[in-house]
């Protein structure tokens, strides 16, 4: 390729230029010299005690079954982008698999932030401070969309706590410090800089990562990324690597996202995200020309969900959305992230171009209910040592309602985990759960609440199920 043949010349130019600069330049200006730290020992001594190793245990058969049922979105994650935590397993299929990641304490009452993929599907979770004996941790909540999870432990004596920093203030070139347990080596410190911000690694619609060259390896997942003031500005999550180990390209969930998600998980156990019911399409130069647009800024509305918030507000297919509130919209990701960050019920002001005319449309943001929320809900029964129900549930969407009948209510059973209580008691994929313990349900979380209550009361959960147009009752015991 052309740039390969020019590479030696570019290197020579750089060396010569650097020598000339060195000869011609005076000593660094005082202001620049003051910004360069001598080392990070003070920060590390203060913050290291607040970083924990997270260990998990899970049955191998479960993990293999869930991998076999992974969604197309899971498989679309580029091979070179890897979310890492260390896994150790016995050659015997019946033996449990152990995982190891990192986390950090965010409050004196024992809340810990880590990655969702570190604790996902774990049957048992422990955290360890340094060389101390691991202590049991309870899963408070998790958010697959941002890969953030919150754990809770009993407060420890003199427990160190981290403080959140402002990830928006982290400019490329600023110092960062990663602390975690790569390959099980607890209390490991690596240092680098912010390489870039707002990176999209195609792991989901909410991608907004800090890129860093601080070394991140297996086991670092869930650990904190500190700025030079010792504040957490990111949660180390993924690396780009063709070899499976650090090559200087790592990614962290920015603190402005992680903090908001963690606070919601602590407060309610789940994350509420806004939605407006739009399918969006990027505007290519050819599409812009066809639409008579002067540029490719904004995002094209490909379709509108019937009866959704945008439909009710009058948004139409073919509209071009250029702003939401005072924020410009340059891509579908911009709009998706902005809406997802809004509280349901918020009035969103969209600037819309239709037929060459610009107008403002106010949309009442709805609440997103998707399969991620249902999978989060079905985990709740295991928080206190109870068994999982073993269902992946989803609300009844418009397309499903049309297929099953206009009067269909309840939640749809999308998957049933083998050997789970639900499977053993005859629940099948495609069933619609209409009621749980004589309570009408419309959200997966409502089924999870009734399952948790049934376990606390040590009795079966009674499900009213619609199957093949007929209703029946199924009692599910733990």
UniProtKB/TrEMBL annotation:
Residues 57-78, 366-389 are annotated as: Disordered. PROSITE patterns: PDZ (PS50106). One of its GO terms (biological process) is proteolysis. InterPro entries: Chloro_Bact_Ser_Proteases (IPR051201), PDZ (IPR001478), PDZ_sf (IPR036034), Pept_S1C_Do (IPR011782), Peptidase_S1_PA (IPR009003), Peptidase_S1C (IPR001940). The active site is at residues 117, 147, 221. The lineage of its organism: Bacteria, Pseudomonadati, Pseudomonadota, Alphaproteobacteria, Hyphomicrobiales. SMART domains: PDZ. This is Probable periplasmic serine endoprotease DegP-like. Belongs to the peptidase S1C family. One of its GO terms (cellular component) is periplasmic space. It comes from the Bacteria. It is found in: Periplasm. Its EC number is 3.4.21.107. Substrate binds at residues 117, 147, 219-221. Keywords: Hydrolase, Periplasm, Protease, Repeat, Serine protease, Signal, Stress response. It catalyses: Acts on substrates that are at least partially unfolded. The cleavage site P1 residue is normally between a pair of hydrophobic residues, such as Val-|-Val. Residues 372-382 have a biased composition (Polar residues). Residues 265-343, 382-469 form the PDZ domain. One of its GO terms (molecular function) is serine-type endopeptidase activity. NCBIfam families: degP_htrA_DO. Residues 1-33 form the signal peptide. The keyword Signal applies.
């Amino acid at each position: 390729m052309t740039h390969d043949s020019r590479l030696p010349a570019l290197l020579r130019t750089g060396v010569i230029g650097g020598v000339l600069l060195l000869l011609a330049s005076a000593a660094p200006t005082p202001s620049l010299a003051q910004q360069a730290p001598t080392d990070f020992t003070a920060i590390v001594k203060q913050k290291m005690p607040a970083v924990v190793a997270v260990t998990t245990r899970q049955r191998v058969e479960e993990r293999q079954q869930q991998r076999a049922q992974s969604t197309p979105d899971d498989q679309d994650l580029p091979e070179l982008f890897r979310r890492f935590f260390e896994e150790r397993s016995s050659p015997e299929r019946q033996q449990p698999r152990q995982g190891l990641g990192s986390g950090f304490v965010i409050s004196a009452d024992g809340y810990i932030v880590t990655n969702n993929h570190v604790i996902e599907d774990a049957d048992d979770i422990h955290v360890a401070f340094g060389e101390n004996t691991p202590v049991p941790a309870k899963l408070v909540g998790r958010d697959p969309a941002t890969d953030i999870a919150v754990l809770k432990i009993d407060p420890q004596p003199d427990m160190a706590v981290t403080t959140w920093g402002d990830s928006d203030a982290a400019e490329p070139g600023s110092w960062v410090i990663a602390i975690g347990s790569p390959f099980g080596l607890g209390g490991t410190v690596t240092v680098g800089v912010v390489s870039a911000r707002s990176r999209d690694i195609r792991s989901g619609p909410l991608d907004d990562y800090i890129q860093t060259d601080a070394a991140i390896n297996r086991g670092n997942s869930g650990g904190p990324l500190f700025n030079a003031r010792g504040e957490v500005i990111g949660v180390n999550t993924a690396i780009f690597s063709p070899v499976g180990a650090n090559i200087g390209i790592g990614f962290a969930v920015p603190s402005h996202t992680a903090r908001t998600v963690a606070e919601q998980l602590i407060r309610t156990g789940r994350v509420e995200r806004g939605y407006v019911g739009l399918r969006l399409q990027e505007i290519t130069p050819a599409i812009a020309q066809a639409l008579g647009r002067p540029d490719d800024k904004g995002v094209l509305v490909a379709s509108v969900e019937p009866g959704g918030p945008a439909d009710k507000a009058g948004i139409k297919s073919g509209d071009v959305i250029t702003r939401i509130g005072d924020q410009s919209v340059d891509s579908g990701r911009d709009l998706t992230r902005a809406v997802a960050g809004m509280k349901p019920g918020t009035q969103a002001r969209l600037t819309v171009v239709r037929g060459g005319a610009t107008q403002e449309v106010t949309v009442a943001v709805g609440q997103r209910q998707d399969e991620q929320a249902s999978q989060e809900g079905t985990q709740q029964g295991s928080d206190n040592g109870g068994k999982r129900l073993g269902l992946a549930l989803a609300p009844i969407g418009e397309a499903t309602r049309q297929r099953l009948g206009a009067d269909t209510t309840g939640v749809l059973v999308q998957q049933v985990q083998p050997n789970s209580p639900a499977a053993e008691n005859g629940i099948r994929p495609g069933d619609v759960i209409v009621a749980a313990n004589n309570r009408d349900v419309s959200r997966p979380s409502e089924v999870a609440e009734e399952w948790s209550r049934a376990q606390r009361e040590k009795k079966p959960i009674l499900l009213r199920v619609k199957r093949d147009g007929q209703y029946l009752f199924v009692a599910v015991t733990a």
